[in-house]
Predict the structure of Glutaredoxin family protein.
Amino acid sequence: MDTSANATVPVLELITKTSCHLCDDARTAVGKVAGDLGLPWTEKKIDGDAELTARFGEEIPVVLVDGVQRDFWHIDPVRLESVLRRAMTGG
């Protein structure tokens, strides 16, 4: 990861639910890309969360970067890396 003063650390979130095979695949993809870039990430489950279910229930899994939905269902690691690199440079 770029540790210069101009680098920013994007907020990377994966929204999932229990018993979701696409979520398992997404977790692997997000973990690999975040790990390669040295970025932290969090996972939130929609299970029992009415607000998250209403917002994302039909699109799980969902990837958010800085609060903006960037991908859903099948997470493309190449696209995710590109989005994160742009976010890290403020672009």
Summary: The longest strand covers residues 12-16. The chain has a mean pLDDT of 93.
